[in-house]
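Table S2 (continued). Query chain:
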Amino acid sequence: MKIRFHDPRADPVAEGWPEFVPAARLHPVWDYEVMGLDGWTARNPPVLVTLADGAGIVAALSVLVCRPRLRPRFAPTPGHRLLRPFWAEVCQPWLSGYPGLVFAPRVAAVERRPLIREFERALRRRLGPGLLGVLYRAVGEEFATDLRGPGRLVKHVDSVAVLKNRFGSEDEWIASLPKSRRGGLRRQRRRLALDSRTMPSAAFLRRFLRRPDVHTLTYTGADGRLLAVNTLLDRPDSPVKQHWGKLPVTEGGRQGLLFDSCIHAMRYATRRGVKELAAGRGLPELKATLGFRARPVYTAAVPRPVLGW
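Corresponding output:
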């Protein structure tokens, strides 16, 4: 097994990565160039770790090498070795509710645990004695099982909202909701359907939006002021409704935009016939009224003495 570490800010794209991304059906935040652009302004830039056999990459991890909150504000230059104690986090910071750990489809469930342990041993060798341990964030129940063991802490910390798509259209989805929510969504849809203005581009997402699988929904006022923005990260089986932000009503924002964005997302999901739509971890009670169900999310802490065991 070949284990390689790649700094997207400075290293060339990992061998086999362009083939692995579509094969593993990864979301667009795993784009190697996008990870590099994020890394240059991040306090803890991502490192891409790949595990490969003779047939190609079998697993990949997004790893943040995290330092105590001391100066400087940004990360050290590529190749710099940390002298103070630090820890590593396996996570995908731009994808809520999904782990920074992915496997090739050909990897059987029984093979995941040994691969994770190989990664941990390699990380310990790579980062040296200053490494305190590894924290795995936002792992699903199946990966949580692979991470359990003596000296390891695996804790249920949150849930991600997931809507199983069994609908043929957005109208079928709306019809399945409680009466009070159903009426509100229909009124909101009628009210915003009168707005014929062209949606403006989101300049701050310009680089990311060059990808054809990243979609942006924006709302503007009559004066052209940006009121809300939402991105949809596409994927053949489970797109993610992600990166939502809006102005408060007290500052000129409008009510109901979140619900309207859900209508647009479900319109897209039902037309594509995807398996499910994920919508992050915030506002679980509100999302439950829209048909989303909670999927457990875990955090696993692995201290240095048991890394690789």
